[in-house]
Amino acid sequence: MKERELQIIIAPNGEVNLHIHGYKGPSCLEVVKLFEQIVGQVKSYEKSRAFYEPDEEVRFHIDQHQ
Amino acid sequence: MPCGGVCILTPVVVAAWPAFSAAVTAAAASLGYSVLAESVDIVSQGVEATNESNRRRVQLEIANSELVTNQLGRDQCISVTRGGVTVTFLRDARGHAQVRVDGAGSSEEALRAFGEELSQRVVQQYVYQRVMDELRVRQFLVVEEETKADHSIHLKVRRWEN
C-alpha cells in the first residue's frame, strides 16, 4: 500500500497552498490538475526532486527487465 | 516520504446559490455577523433604508466569481449584519457576486474594508467546502485540521493506494 499525503493551507483570502507528498513522477501532475478543477488557477508550481523519479508503475517495469 | 511538489492556486468561485449562501453564512458567523435575511425583497428594502437615513454604501465585486443559477434564483440575495453595518451579497446582471456594504457612522474606507474582509472569508469558506467535499469523494482521510491565529485553515489528508 502506498501512502499519499496532501498538506493544504487555505489562506484567509481563499488562496490555496498545496504540498504534495508520496507521489512520484508525473502522477503528481494529476493531483495538481485535480486541485485546478476544485480551486481555480495555478499561480505557481514547484516540482520537487521526486517529480523526476519514475513513478511506481514505471519502476515496476524497469525492475522486471533487470 | 518522497515529496512531489508545492503548488499555489488562486481561487475561482463558480457556485450555485445554495453553496454560495452557505459560504456567506459560515464566513459571517466566523467574523461575528448574523444573518439578517435571505430573500429577493431585502435588496429593495435595503435601498429604501439607505435613501431615508443617508447611510453610506459601497459596492464591491468578488473577483473571479460566477454565480450559476436558474431563472427563478436570479435575484436572490443574502444580508448579514454586525454593529450597524449590513453586507448584502447578490448576483449582478453578469452573474458575478456583488457585495453591497451599508452603514451609518462609518467612512467609505471602513465600509470597503469590512466588505473586503468578509468577501475574502466567503471565498475561503467556499474553497474549504469544495476541497473537503471533493477529497471525501476521493476517499482521502482528514488526519489534521486546524485554524491558525491568522485565520488560515491547515489540513492534512491521507489516502492509501494499492
Task: Characterise the protein shown here.
The complex is a heterodimer of chains A (66) and B (162). With 66 residues, chain A is α+β, with helices and mostly antiparallel strands. Chain A has one domain (5-65). Helices cover 33% and strands 35% of the residues of chain A. Chain A has a two-stranded antiparallel sheet with strand order 1-2. The model of chain A has no long low-confidence stretch (mean pLDDT 82). Chain B has one domain (13-158). In chain B, 35% of the residues lie in helices and 40% in strands. A 5-stranded antiparallel beta sheet of chain B has the order 3-6-7-8-4, with helices on both faces. A two-stranded parallel sheet of chain B has the order 2-5. Chain B has a two-stranded antiparallel ribbon with strand order 9-10. In chain B, helix 1 (17-30) crosses helix 3. The radius of gyration of chain B is 18 Å and the shape is globular. The chains are: A alpha+beta (66), B alpha+beta (162). At the A-B interface, strand 1, strand 2, helix 1 and strand 3 of A face strand 1, helix 3 and strand 10 of B. Strand 3 of chain A pairs antiparallel with strand 1 of chain B.
